[in-house]
Amino acid sequence: MVLYFSATGNTEYIAKSLAGVLKDDCLNLLPRIRKHDYSALYSKTPFVICSPVYVCELPRFLTAFLKKTPFKGNRRVYFVFTSGGYAGISGIIAKRIFAKKHMIYKGRAEFRMPGNYIASNMYPAPADEEIKKIIRESSAGIPELADSIRKGRRLKGRRIQLWEILVTLPFNPVWCLIKQPTKKFYATDRCISCRKCEQVCPLGIIHMKKGRPVWVRRTCSHCMSCIQNCPAEAIEYGNITQGKRRYLLGKYL
Ligand SMILES: Cc1cc2nc3c(=O)[nH]c(=O)nc-3n(C[C@H](O)[C@H](O)[C@H](O)COP(=O)(O)O)c2cc1C
Ligand code: SF4
Ligand code: SF4
Predict the structure, then answer these.
(1) Whose CA is nearest to atom 28 of ligand 1?
(2) Is 104 in the same domain as 37?
(3) Residues 9 and 134 reside in one and the same domain
(4) Is residue 192 in contact with ligand 2, taking CB distance under 6 Å?
(5) Tens digit of pLDDT for each residue in 119-141?
(6) Residue 88 belongs to what domain range?
């Protein structure tokens, strides 16, 4: 069974393409994550968990979800990460979670995909042609990955260096606390009260008040799902996102 979380479609695309080649089930974890539903997941086939990379790790809410959820049936687990090019120590985090569950970690695959983090000027979005090229190149790796999974092979990921672990483990929580406040999010008059932002937030921290979204927690995962999925492009993050093109992979298929 292929499982995924995806905010802007990159991971969903890889997960669904892979499940299509494997002829396996594909499950979007968003409803479970939102409901804090930690009921057991069962699969006859190996679990293939697909995740974006946030600040060199798995999204923290996904790590928490995977830790709390029992995995029944097949004892093997593969990971597939999508990132803008650097998956950091995600593989180590994934391996640890499943070692504690006494499951067999079969390694990870990494796919470079278009970056989606528009709440900072540090990561400029690629141009349209570059986005299409990145998607094309990553798509080309899916049949080989499916073949390896089908044959039960262990995936050989890049060797993660000790310094990456020593830097990322303290860096990630500090960054998330300091650099990911919600107070800069707001909805402009373009808002059509469709509630999409409320529905896609994995943390469930967007509430509608008088037809407008309100961010009710001080920090969030900055997954960009609300801002990128708003059909009216009504959500902004301070003035950083003003005039920036919104990204959803689906627009490029
Ligand atoms: C909060 C946040 C942090 C990110 N951190 C990284 C990172 O450390 N390295 C990287 O290469 N890409 C990073 N990215 C880019 C995403 O991992 C990448 O665009 C991913 O494919 C998005 O997947 P999705 O469309 O399924 O949500 C980050 C994106 C966000 C929103
Ligand atoms: S998704 Fe956009 S238009 Fe819909 S409620 Fe949220 S801010 Fe308003
Ligand atoms: S508020 Fe927006 S950016 Fe923050 S976690 Fe929710 S959907 Fe993601």
Answers:
(1) 54
(2) yes
(3) yes
(4) yes
(5) 999 888 889 999 999 999 999 99
(6) 2-167
